[in-house]
Design goal:
flat
Length: 94
């Protein structure tokens, strides 16, 4: 069961990473998700307005709470809306 959860978590993380990659460059706000183990920031989605980002954040937060209440480990445990100029993973090395 744990192996299945880990596989699903990796697939979800891969999907989130690839789906947000194209939209990231065009939008002003990015919804970031943090995976539980290992703790990693992943761009989840991109939005033109802060309000749209926070609306989706609230929806995702409710989904995480529901999964935790059901005894499941969610793929994303924390979400945050940041401007597209901010990368919570830190600066990239050259």
């Amino acid at each position: 069961m744990m192996r299945l959860a880990r596989s699903v978590s990796l697939l979800v993380a891969f999907y989130l990473l690839t789906s947000a990659a194209t939209a990231y460059a065009e939008c002003a706000w990015v919804l970031w998700g943090v995976t539980p183990n290992p703790s990693t920031f992943l761009p989840s989605n991109a939005f033109k307005t802060r309000e749209d980002c926070h609306s989706e954040k609230a929806r995702m937060d409710m989904k995480v709470i529901a999964e935790m209440n059901a005894g499941r480990t969610p793929a994303i445990v924390l979400t945050s809306c940041l401007p597209d100029t901010v990368d919570p993973r830190g600066p990239k090395g050259k």
